[in-house]
């Protein structure tokens, strides 16, 4: 399969996923699962939020690409990935929340707002019900509340909700990348200032000269790590 065809297939598969970015499929995000599906390495039954309807959608996309017997269509979601269920949203108990920000860091779509040592609030219209905020909470103050009654899978979702979730997921990635680069720039500026001070020193003994070189080496190594990281990204 040509690269363009493969990318089109991945795009179609990703569009058939509800974009919860929940990682229940054992991949880092919906795009990662779509990549694995396009390569034929996994079955289309690993997305609990998509449910049975999601399995059918993915299978219809894959069937013209792979022989039908290349994957066995399971009538239910793979149990190791979870269960199909109504769409939930997270609710934070304001009396128990200690403002640790761990849930904010875990949310893949920036649906939780708050500040350190202040109560956090879930923006329910943006919450994908991914459950990722629950494990890091040290005081167990987050509860998942079903909001779609008996509707499960894609019956509990819509293309509009999926598009919003995907846009917010990508926006978060951009924000995190920008914040990391800004932090690296601040650290580099601080390191350069410290290096200038060290270079201005005029050590009078061999021991002092060795100490000066040691400090230079530490700063140079730190700056090299940052440059290597930025180059790799």
Radius of gyration: 24 Å
Query: What level of helicity do the residues show?
Result: 40-55%
Major pleated sheet:
2 strands, antiparallel
Class derived from helix and strand content = mainly alpha
Oligomeric composition of the shown chains: single chain
Q: Count the strands? A: 4
The helix tally amounts to: 6
Strand order of the largest sheet: 1-4
Explain what the structure shows.
The chain is mostly helical and 233 residues long. The strands form two sheets. The chain has a two-stranded antiparallel ribbon with strand order 1-4. A two-stranded antiparallel sheet has the order 2-3. 47% of the residues lie in helices and 6% in strands. The chain has three domains: 3-81, 3-methyladenine DNA Glycosylase II, Chain A, domain 3, CATH 1.10.15.40; 85-157, Alpha-Beta Plaits (2-Layer Sandwich); 177-232. Strand 2 (112-113) and strand 3 form a beta hairpin. The chain has helices spanning 3-15, 30-39, 51-62, 102-106, 159-200, 206-232; strands spanning 88-92, 112-113, 121-122, 142-146. It is built from six helices and four strands, in the order H-H-H-E-H-E-E-E-H-H. Helix 1 (3-15) packs across helix 2 and helix 5 (159-200) packs antiparallel against helix 6 (206-232).
